């Protein structure tokens, strides 16, 4: 039975939905959309307690899913894998907030995972050894707290001062330096739709639509904001800075 189709959902709704045929309580996190205003939700911990009380499996689909801490208050109202260790089953994306390869991950109690592994669908949906190897490296980085090796986490944690140093370096290498502007940006990737974080961007002079088309043709993607074409530096990897400099100079010549 479905629960939570209105803007306000409380524990009683779940209690009333459970009957003699119920086997599992599934909660799907709103990872790529949000409900604001007059709304109410049920904490996952409360659903876990209800599942234990009724001898049911509690299963949480997080969508994005992250482990540890996030900067700029991003973790507010977001389910943290660290707090779901007692859940029967948890699923989330290997990419997105976790910052690894594109795959689906299911964690949970040993006996339930064993049953899932016997399902014939596993032969169709299982990932290859390359994906497993890359995912293992990401998990190892989390275990060793080497967060700088997780690209998504590293980019999120960059301070505005760090971005300003990058902006100044890029300008020092350009034929025509660009305006440095403060902006707010989204995490993206189908996560945290209403949360923005501070960032720094390079604004290209001239018609924003024409600049967007020129840069896109030269394989550089930016965005238009308040009539300006911006290159958001929180989206630029350290290894790509030199390439971006070359692309800007090339585009400036056209």
Classify the fold: give the CATH topology of the largest domain: Aspartate Aminotransferase, domain 2
Q: What characteristic shape results from the CA principal axes?
A: elongated
Radius of gyration: 22 Å
Structural class: alpha/beta
How helix-rich are the residues, as a percent range? 25-40%
String of helices and strands: HEHEEEHHHHHEEHEEH
Going by CATH, the homologous superfamily of the largest domain would be Type I PLP-dependent aspartate aminotransferase-like (Major domain)
**CATH secondary-structure class of the largest domain:** Alpha Beta
Quaternary organization: single chain
Overall structural domain count: 2
Uncertain regions: pLDDT < 50 for 5+ in a row?
A: none
Extended strand count? 8
Measured between the Cα atoms of the first and last residue, the distance is 60 Å
The percentage of residues in β strands lies in 15-25%
The total count of helices amounts to: 9
Biggest sheet: strands side by side, in what order? Answer: 1-2-3-4
Protein name: Selenocysteine synthase
Enzyme class: transferase
EC number: 2.9.1.1
GO molecular function, one term: L-seryl-tRNA(Sec) selenium transferase activity
């Amino acid at each position: 039975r479905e629960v939570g189709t209105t803007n306000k959902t409380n524990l009683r709704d779940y209690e009333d939905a459970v009957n003699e045929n119920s086997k599992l309580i599934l909660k799907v996190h709103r990872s790529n959309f949000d409900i604001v205003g007059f709304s109410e939700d049920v904490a996952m911990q409360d659903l876990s307690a209800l599942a234990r009380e009724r001898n049911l499996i509690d299963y949480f689909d997080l969508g994005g899913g992250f482990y540890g801490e996030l900067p700029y208050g991003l973790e507010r109202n977001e389910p943290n894998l660290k707090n779901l260790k007692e859940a029967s089953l948890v699923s989330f994306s290997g990419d997105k907030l976790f910052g690894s390869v594109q795959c689906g991950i299911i964690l949970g109690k040993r006996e339930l995972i064993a049953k899932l592994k016997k399902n014939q669908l596993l032969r169709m949906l299982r990932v290859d050894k390359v994906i497993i190897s890359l995912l293992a490296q990401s998990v190892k980085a989390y275990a060793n707290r080497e967060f700088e090796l997780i690209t998504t986490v590293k980019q999120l944690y960059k301070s505005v001062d760090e971005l300003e140093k990058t902006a100044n370096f890029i300008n020092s290498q350009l034929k025509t330096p660009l305006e440095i502007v403060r902006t707010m940006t989204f995490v993206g990737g189908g996560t945290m739709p209403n949360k923005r974080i501070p960032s720094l961007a390079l604004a290209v002079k001239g018609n924003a639509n024409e600049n967007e088309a020129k840069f896109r043709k030269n394989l550089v993607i930016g965005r238009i904001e308040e009539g300006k074409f911006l290159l958001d530096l929180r989206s630029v990897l350290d290894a790509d800075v030199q390439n971006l400099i070359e692309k800007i100079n090339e585009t400036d010549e056209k």
